[in-house]
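Morning!

This is the sequence you dropped in the shared folder:
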Amino acid sequence: MQIAYLIITYTDPVQTGRMIGQLSDANTRFYIHLDKKVAISAHAALQQHPQVTFVEKRVNVRWAGYSTVQAIFNGIEAILTSGISFDYICLLSGQDYPIKTPAEISGFFEQHKGKLFLKYRAFAGDWEEAFERISKYHLIDYRFPGKFFTENLINRLLPAPERPAGMQFYGSSMFWAISPQAADYVWKKIEQEPGLKRFFRYTWGPDEFLFQTILLNSEFSDLVVNSNCHYYKHKPLTPNPEWLGMQDLADLKLSDKLFARKFSIKKDAAILDAIDGMLTERKTVEN
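The structure's back. Tokens below.
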């Protein structure tokens, strides 16, 4: 089971290195998109890792902007043009960490081979508040004086964005594990249809619904499993995940998920040490 991990990050290279160390085996490769705002030299040690490739086309990523999607697409392009044949691409951030061993992760994907793991809710009837993301023009990726005034003026003067005909919208978490064929389909669908790309470019947080929407409106829809492979806890009354710490270790041990988020080595390094110990025990049993 050949797995490509696409890591979108701007955070601590030491923590990212630890994550890669726990995920590494002979059948894994890592493609890192480092936010263009961050000096590549900060991650120089990771560049020496034989299984790590840094995505050359770097993007200045803005939270909730289309720039995040573009960073993902650039990573997908690097994976698909690498000359290596993969069974799965897993999207991770620098604040994720595995809670299963490489053998357990490989076994999971072998058991569910061909399935696409994306968490989703339908906008219509379930996630109605998400329509705000696509019913106005959002200039998230732009920085200029008077931006918010301009954005408000555009939305007052222009008709609402025209949604792609017949398209139903779905979304939730940005993280997924899908086949290279599905990733290629989404990437090329957007890149080869300028009108579709323009529509998503001016939405809010498209990283949380573009992949789900495109795949669930395609021939891949029957392969989609409404779940991703991440364990996380939401803060009350917000969509943001809580920071995980030692208080969460028991739940992490019992979880059937492959990865968890989000962690900070600076906030709580002990939880990563504890997970490392858990994974070492499991690897010992495997051997």
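Headline: The chain has a mean pLDDT of 96.

More detail when I'm at my desk.
O.
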